[in-house]
Write a structure and sequence with these properties.
Number of helices: 14
Low-confidence stretches: 3-83
Family: Belongs to the glycosyltransferase 34 family.
Helix content: 25-40%
Radius of gyration: 23 Å
Mean pLDDT: 84
Distance between the termini: 47 Å
Protein name: Glycosyltransferase 7
Organism: Urochloa decumbens
Membrane topology: Single-pass type II membrane protein
Largest sheet: 6 strands, mixed
GO molecular function, one term: galactosyltransferase activity
Length: about 450
């Protein structure tokens, strides 16, 4: 979202990819901590973080119990279905969608809204509701074909959300002019939380990220007790202290007071802060592998976790068990082989149910059956050593809209890689309609024969 890099922006070597926009660093192999450390932190000396001499902007904003007790009682006294829903926090003029107006007592406000609107807040089957938020810049793309690429990237997200019952908010408005590029996500997420109290999780996905496994569902039970989930590695965050130790381009954040306070503290290191220039210098000094001195969202996030006595660390889950966000350079060249292995799994004796045609409405059940068969076919392992479909393939550094890609990537590698990933994902969608792409780079499609892929004993 709003991904164009400023003119003259410092370009990061491909080995430590993180463009100075809203995109994120490359994802390393999740299957080996040692490999990840070598891949992401080689050459980076452990720096001394200059925190003890600085003011601490990270203390959470605690709710004002007296104020919350007063407005909660007034707003929810009439809150019941019988009274037409009653008054909720939306009737309180002090509650704002903007980042410059802190909200207190948010957990109680959400609970009161849910009581007033049980028909809207019920999760159904105990499943926590997820809202995906993504977006792009308000104006047309500068790169030829960029708008078409963004359209395909949007379609990919819409396909996944439709198949899995996830709401999608795709935003093309800059909600706070001063917070652009990589900081633009915070005002969008903040507004989404207030506008969607029924959503337990907000799932931020950068515009240049492709969902490449339409069968995979977020393992939300895994994150009980946590409020923020990012793709990262504890050994790199707390050991190597690398600014590429996690990825801020794809993350889950719980819709709760903790998250609102966290985003306030995060934004305090952004362009709205009078200390913005100083924070840029601080972050560059704190991370020896950071080569530009601008305060960006990802460095700020790592920095917040590194502080002694950080009030945030215990609620952050660093996910490295699967491709919650995967670096495209280590993925796109393997997609063809992954397709072949999945087809081989479906050809195995006793796998006729995986080949069976089904309605789109049956997708979740069919996906569960396919996922259950992965281990027996040797496809359960994710990452560069495994052959499970990558959940998210992130084209950080390619900048399809502006065209100002990282100088270490060629236009052909980015463009071809995105086409391969998008067609790979689209084939999984088209299959339920009886089609697939003619090949991995083709826009043409062809009908699928019955019993596709043909069983081994029928070939």
């Amino acid at each position: 979202m709003w991904r164009d890099a400023p003119a003259g922006a410092v370009r990061i070597p491909a080995s430590r990819e993180r463009e100075p926009t809203m995109s994120s660093p490359r994802a390393a192999k999740p299957s080996s901590s040692l490999h990840d450390a070598l891949l992401f932190a080689a050459g980076a000396a452990v720096s001394t973080v200059l925190l003890l001499t600085l003011a601490n902007p990270f203390a959470p904003q605690l709710p004002d119990a007296r104020h919350e007790g007063a407005d909660h009682t007034a707003l929810h006294a009439a809150g019941s279905p019988a009274s037409g829903g009653g008054r909720t926090f939306y009737d309180d003029p002090a509650v704002s969608y903007t980042v410059d107006r802190p909200i207190t007592g948010w957990d109680a406000k959400r609970a009161g809204w849910a009581r007033a609107h049980p028909e809207l807040s019920a999760a159904g089957g105990g499943v926590e509701r997820v809202l995906m938020v993504s977006g792009s810049q308000p104006g047309p793309c500068g790169s030829p074909g960029g708008d078409h690429t963004l359209l395909r990237l949007l379609k990919n997200k819409a396909d996944y959300c439709r198949l899995h019952g996830v709401q999608l908010l795709y935003n093309t408005a800059l909600l706070r002019a001063s917070m652009d590029r990589y900081w633009a996500k915070i005002p969008a997420i903040r507004a989404a939380m207030v506008a969607h109290p029924e959503a337990e999780w907000v799932w931020w996905v950068d515009s240049d990220a492709v969902l490449t496994d339409m069968d995979f569902r977020l393992p939300l039970r895994r994150y009980r007790g946590h409020n923020l989930v990012v793709h990262g590695w504890p050994s790199l965050v707390y050991g190597a202290r690398s600014w590429t130790s996690l990825n801020a381009g794809v993350f889950l954040i719980r819709n709760c007071q903790w998250s609102l306070d966290f985003m306030d503290a995060w934004a305090a290191m952004g362009p709205d802060s009078p200390e913005y220039q100083r924070w840029g210098a601080v972050l560059k000094s704190a991370f020896q592998d950071k080569v530009f001195d601008e305060s960006d969202d990802q460095s700020a996030l790592v920095y917040m976790l590194l502080q002694s006595g950080s009030p945030w660390r215990d609620k952050v889950f660093l996910e490295s068990g699967y491709y919650f966000e995967g670096y495209w350079m280590e993925i796109v060249g393997r997609l063809g082989n992954i397709t072949e292995r999945y087809e081989a799994m479906e050809r195995r004796p006793g796998s006729a149910a995986l080949r069976r045609r089904h309605a789109v409405a049956e997708h979740v059940a069919h996906a569960e059956a396919r996922n259950a068969a992965l281990a027996g076919a040797g496809l359960a392992e994710s990452g560069v050593n495994g052959w499970r479909r990558p959940f998210v393939t992130h084209f950080t550094g390619c900048q399809p809209c502006s065209g100002q890609r990282n100088e270490h990537y060629t236009g052909a590698s980015c463009d071809e890689g995105m086409r391969r990933a998008l067609n790979f994902a689209d084939d999984q969608v088209l299959r339920a309609y009886g089609f697939r792409h003619a090949d991995s780079l083709s826009d043409d499609v062809q009908p699928l024969p019955f019993d596709y892929p043909a069983a081994a004993d029928s070939q």
